[in-house]
Amino acid sequence: MKPIHLEIKGRAPGFPCPVCKESGTARTTEEISRTLRRLYYRCSNILCGHTWTAHLSFEGTLSPSRFGMPRVPLPMIDLELIKPANDDTPPDESGPEAA
Questions:
Q1: Which of 30, 41, 72, 92 lies 20 to 30 Å from 7 when distance is taken between CA atoms?
Q2: How many CB atoms lie within 10 A of CB 26?
Q3: Could you give the CA distance from residue 24 to residue 40 in angstroms, rounded to a whole number?
Q4: What is the pLDDT of residues 11-37, one digit of tens each?
Q5: Which residues neighbour 27 within 8 Å (Cβ) at sequence distance 6 or greater?
Q6: pTM check: above 0.70
């Protein structure tokens, strides 16, 4: 399969430069497969000038599509195992230490 290079439309995930820690900008993306993309980044610090690649991959399905599932295996994620990022609930205090 020949890689497809696409210009970034919209906003790609931010990724700081691993050398100088300034912000990096995704310039193009390459489709490796239906569930994996290679993003090409450039450091915003012109004195640094670092360029690098990063991968953006599909992890799992939270809610199946109404269109059905494609021929690519897409695993389901158990939502009970995911803690919301905004969950500030204190830990359960009825554990072994509470006795």
A1: 72
A2: 19
A3: 10
A4: 677 889 999 999 999 988 899 988 899
A5: 8, 40, 41, 42
A6: no
